[in-house]
Specification:
445 residues; alpha/beta; nine-stranded parallel sheet; eight-stranded mixed sheet
């Protein structure tokens, strides 16, 4: 048993509830000297090290860390793997940015060799930033999703992805049809959904690039496969919203377009949701749909300020998203830092424990996976990250001035980035080590 069972000793912090529901003091567990025990890819014990060790067999292999913090792996609820190569593209807002940067780059993903190269780099970046689960856009090409899932399966990482559906208002080289999009999506669902740790998301890009006929096929797929995800964009940019209402004048709102075609359900995740009415927020809650809060891309594209308190007021599920490549970093830590600033610009506060919730358990709840991932509770899948609290000279100096857990966590999310990630574990196996990079030779780039 001890050859299968491993333990990790460090400070341990994880989110156990939403602070808005239970208060800050009851929203987390923290063990200054903690022990996490893993066996067969799952967490079997966690708590104060001295107590956990008493419950474990003699001879247990323990990896001990100094000045490190173990927490649950980060969850990215909205990201585009084909946009890895165009991150930090200068000078446009959403619609022009799509035309000038996004579409030309996504054209290259018809070539599965190129798609596989980027998929490997993308998954390497996630691991090196401590992200263990992500909801991922592919391209319109079926090949781009196939190779992504192949690489994710080889790493045994939990990924949710899908082929983009887009049959109008896009270059000819990136369009499918309602019929081909439906057939390709159906084939990919049959092949990949629930294969290992992989899950499928039906993925219309956004309402302007799908005809009513295609949106109807999305609704049909969701009826045929009720446990798949639906992943798209919503109310990111004011010009985008005006365009949607011009294209669908019979609908009451942007969200109503999706609602009309049956696209709101338990596993629907909408990226952004910056400019939503109270009625739209309530409808998201009623259907158990979720919003991905993407602060770095919202600032980068000048889209607006996400209103988290409004979402909380209506009970909308919210996760954190990097939205690479409009987002400017794969790091959830940096994303948390930008989220704090978004709240500051609205004279609101974002407590570091709330940020931790959004980046872990909140993301799992948004994806309806909180029974499997999102924190370090016994029985959960062993996706976790070891963070170096002294990763840089400045962090070491600043951490030594911090006197409370909350202050240390705030320093971590304000100054942390990929240099802070010491190790990343996927299903109980080390996937990344800052000293040696991607660990498994069979998947190393």
């Amino acid at each position: 048993m001890t050859t299968q069972r491993k333990a990790y000793r460090a400070s341990i912090l994880h989110s156990i509830a939403d602070p808005k529901d239970v208060g800050l003091e009851h929203s987390y567990q923290y063990f200054e000297d903690g022990l996490l025990v893993v066996e067969h890819g799952h967490i079997i014990d966690v708590g104060p090290a001295t107590e956990v060790l008493k419950r474990q067999p003699r001879g247990l292999h323990v990896t001990q860390y100094k000045d490190k913090l173990i927490t649950s792996g980060f969850i990215d609820t909205h990201i585009h793997y084909p946009q890895t190569g165009m991150i930090a593209s200068y000078g446009e807002q959403l619609l022009d940015w799509l035309e000038n940067y996004t579409f030309p780059e996504e054209r290259r993903f018809k070539n599965p060799v190129y798609a596989h190269k980027v998929a490997k780099l993308f998954l390497d970046e996630l691991a090196s930033n401590g992200t263990t689960t992500a909801l991922v856009f592919g391209t319109v090409h079926k090949e781009s999703v196939d190779v992504f899932f192949q690489e994710a399966e080889r790493r045994n990482v939990r990924m949710i992805a899908g082929k983009v559906l887009m049959d109008r208002n896009a270059p000819d080289y990136l369009r499918d049809t309602p019929e081909s999009g439906y057939a390709d999506s159906k084939a990919l669902i049959e092949k990949w959904h629930k294969r290992g740790r992989l899950l499928y998301a039906v993925t219309p890009r956004f309402a302007p690039t799908s005809t009513p006929e295609q949106l109807a096929t999305v609704g049909k797929l969701l009826e045929e496969y009720p446990d798949v995800y639906m992943h798209t964009h919503l109310s990111e940019n004011k010009k985008e919203i005006e365009w949607v209402l011009e294209l669908f004048p019979e609908r009451n709102s942007y969200l109503d377009v999706y609602d009309h075609y049956g696209l709101l359900h338990k596993r629907s995740v909408f990226a952004h949701g910056i400019h939503l009415s109270d009625c739209e927020c309530q409808r998201l809650t009623d259907t158990e749909s979720a919003i991905a809060f993407c602060p770095t891309s919202n600032l980068f594209l000048g889209s607006g300020l996400f209103r988290l308190p409004k979402m909380e007021q209506h009970g909308v599920r919210v996760g954190m998203g990097t939205d690479v490549g409009a987002g400017t970093s794969f790091s959830i830590l940096q994303t948390m830092s930008e989220a704090y600033k978004i709240m500051q610009l609205q004279q609101e506060k974002l407590h570091p424990l709330k940020s931790l919730f959004l980046a872990t358990l909140g993301g799992a709840r948004a994806l309806h996976l909180d029974d499997q991932i999102g924190n370090l509770n016994v029985g959960k899948e062993a996706d976790f990250v070891v963070l170096d609290l002294h990763a840089t000279q400045l962090m070491r100096f600043r951490m030594n001035q911090a006197t409370t857990l909350e202050e240390k966590l705030f320093v971590l999310m304000s100054l942390g980035d990929d240099r802070t990630v010491c190790e990343t574990y996927i299903y109980g196996e080390k996937a990344y080590d800052s000293r040696g990079g991607i660990r498994d030779k069979k998947i190393a780039s």
